[in-house]
Design a protein that fits this description.
single chain; alpha/beta; 2 domains; three-stranded antiparallel beta sheet; binds adenosine-5'-triphosphate; ATP hydrolysis activity
Length: about 290
């Protein structure tokens, strides 16, 4: 198997007495879309900032595209793209101007017009950034992250503030980038986003990895009981079962035609995620022992 794009072993980071990341081990494979999930304060941004080389770690080994990000050379920085939680400034310039200027910093940038089109900013390309809506500014953040043609793209809560259509468009862009071979590490609080985009998800809380799997299999979702629901005599009925097909056959035999309001559901990614983090949401990150 090839070297992972990101390799983390025993990563720890403490702010004062506050342990934000607590012995994290994680690999992100080359070419995969990986979603890092976790409640507020779980340590996602701290982890991503260490990987981006913006934050020094206290302990552990980290390799990003084969290089330790702590003190990595400029040539390494050119191979990664970063979309932070929020960026600002540059209000008097236009998206085209900032993209052109940023593109000049890279050896093999994408065409600025291609990036404007892919991020849905063509119509705003020559307007001042101060006149863009919140969602359009976020698209510009994404555009700036991909203009350098990165091998590895970090996206920190990329679709916050997007309307539903813009989110769908963005998901299409991420899938395109992934099929071009870009490795993508994304943090998000939207479970549907992780389900749509991620090959694998990692759930962290209090700086520790709680679960790691495909969205479909996380927390044993595939093998959990299904809920079969229907309406009978004007009353909503439901039962949980490990054999939903047998229940459907029994219902089909009881009703002459369609079974009224029939649904079969399994725990959603959100149900599974909430169950995983439940023991961790009331407490904050671990305190460093005295
Ligand atoms: N610069 C800092 N100084 C002190 N404490 C910090 C600093 N940055 C983060 N923390 C603390 O470290 C913990 C982890 O923060 P982090 O931003 O990594 O979490 P997160 O998972 O990204 O949260 P969110 O989902 O809210 O963005 C939090 O308790 C936070 O308050």
């Amino acid at each position: 198997m090839s070297e992972p794009a990101i390799r983390i072993r025993g990563l720890s980071k403490t702010y004062g007495q506050h342990r934000a990341v607590d012995g994290l081990d994680l690999d992100v494979r080359c070419g995969e879309v990986f979603a890092l999930l976790g409640p507020n304060g779980a340590g996602k941004t701290t982890t991503v900032e260490v990987l981006e080389g913006f934050r020094d770690r206290d302990a552990g080994e980290v390799s990003v595209l084969g290089t330790d990000p702590q003190g990595a050379p400029l040539a390494w920085r050119e191979r990664i793209g970063i979309v932070l939680q929020s960026s600002g400034g540059l209000d008097l310039l236009t998206p085209r101007e900032v993209l052109r200027t940023t593109a000049r910093c890279y050896r093999q940038p994408r065409e600025v017009d291609e990036v404007l089109t892919r991020t849905g900013l063509q119509e705003k390309a020559d307007e001042r950034i101060s006149g863009l809506s919140g969602g359009q500014r976020r698209r510009l953040d994404v555009a700036l992250g991909i203009v350098g043609r990165p091998e590895l793209l970090f996206l920190d809560e990329p679709t916050t503030g997007f309307d539903p259509q813009a989110r769908r468009d963005f998901w299409g862009l991420i899938r395109d980038l992934a099929s071009d071979g870009t490795t993508i590490l994304l943090t998000t609080h939207y479970l549907d986003e992780a389900e749509h985009l991620a090959d694998r998800v990692g759930v962290i809380a209090a700086g520790r990895l709680l679960a790691l799997d495909t969205p479909a299999a996380l927390g044993g979702r595939q093998s959990q009981e299904a809920t079969v629901s229907w309406e009978e005599d004007g009353v909503r009925r439901s039962l949980r079962t490990a054999t939903p097909t047998a229940e459907l056959l029994a219902l089909a035999a009881r009703f002459p035609g369609e079974v009224p309001e029939l649904t079969v559901t399994r725990p959603s990614l959100e149900d599974t995620y909430l169950a995983l983090i439940a023991p961790h949401v009331s407490g904050e990150s671990a305190q460093v022992p005295a």
